[in-house]
Amino acid sequence: MKMMVYCKLISHNGNSDATYAFGAYESDMTGRITFYSDGRTPLIGRHPDSGHVSNLWIGKLLQKYSDALKAGTFKEKMAYEC
C-alpha cells in the first residue's frame, strides 16, 4: 500500500518561512510543520492526530520541493507519494 504526505499552506512570513498543515491523509492534516527558505531543518510543531508520517517522508517531500522552498516560493499544496 502506498502512503502519502499531504501539506496545505496555513501562513507564510514573506519569502523566509511558511507553516503548513500536514498529514498522511487529505482528510486529516492536523500536524503543523514550518519550512524555511534558508535551508534550515523543518520544524515539526505538532504531529498529525492519526496516520503516521515519518521524518524520512518529510525529507523526501522537502527534496521534491527544495528549489521552490529555497526561492521562497511556498506552494498552496504539496504532496509526496511514499
Number of domains: 1
Number of strands: 5
Judged by helices, strands and strand pairing, the structural class is alpha+beta
Q: On the 0-100 scale, what is the average pLDDT?
A: 93
Placed side by side, the strands forming the largest sheet appear as 4-3-2-1-5
Number of helices: 2
Rg over alpha carbons:
12 Å
**Topology pattern, helix = H, strand = E:** EEEEHHE
Low-confidence segments, given as residue ranges, are none
The major pleated sheet works out as: 5 strands, antiparallel
Would you mind describing this structure in some detail?
Strands 4-3-2-1-5 form a five-stranded antiparallel beta sheet, with helices on one face. The mean pLDDT is 93. Strand 2 (17-23) and strand 3 form a beta hairpin. With 82 residues, the protein is of the alpha+beta class. The chain has one domain (4-10, 27-81). The protein has helices at residues 55-64, 66-70; strands spanning 4-13, 17-23, 31-36, 43-46, 77-81.
In short:
Helices cover about 20% and strands about 40% of the residues. By secondary structure, the protein is α+β, with helices and mostly antiparallel strands.
What's the arrangement of secondary structure elements?
Layout: E1 4-13, E2 17-23, E3 31-36, E4 43-46, H1 55-64, H2 66-70, E5 77-81
Antiparallel strand pairs: 1-2, 1-5, 2-3, 3-4
Q: Which keywords apply here?
A:
82 residues, alpha+beta, five-stranded antiparallel beta sheet
